[in-house]
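debug: dumping io for the single-chain case to check the tokenizer round-trip. Nothing else runs in this session.
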Amino acid sequence: MCCLRTMLAGWALLVLGFAGGAAQDAKVEKKMNLDVGDRAPAFEAPDEEGRTWQSVRHVGKKIIVVYFYPGDFTPGCTVQAQKFRDNMNKISEQGAEVIGVSGDSPTTHALFKQAHKLNFSLLADEDGRVAKQFGVPVGPGGVVKTKDADKNLITLKRELTVARWTFIIGLDGKVAYKNTKVDPVTDSKQIEGFLQKAAMK
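debug: decoded output
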């Protein structure tokens, strides 16, 4: 009888533990739905050279533009990257740094950056951890057949695909801008315009 009571008590604690864990998970999930005015999460990921890029070393020193995109070498993402490249001087003049984030590997990012002469860092979010910190939807991976900088045919695979969302983190570490319906052609211009207006206030 004593053993039975002990077992029942143990099961009760186990159930409460699961419930507490579920409640904690719900709180974490809720925090992932970032809105303008919320404090941006601290995040890190390898860049195209395999070096760890850490937000704590950049936030507060510059305005950080974080744009999530589905994948390297895809049509829309290529145009989006090229537009950011072409508008980088005007964006930099506003004290901002641009970071592109996708589920591609550092190696794929390096090929993409070289092929299109990109002048900003690309972060490899292969497990979707950074995307989830920002509340960005994550879906199945994909395969892209393209050409590298030397015009050689290559096949690239990514394990997951993130949605095309763009954020701006202000000098105070808070989300100043959020766009969940990004047009890859106009994204960089919208960012440029927002930064200019914010500077005038």
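debug: round-trip ok. The chain is about 40% helix and 25% strand.
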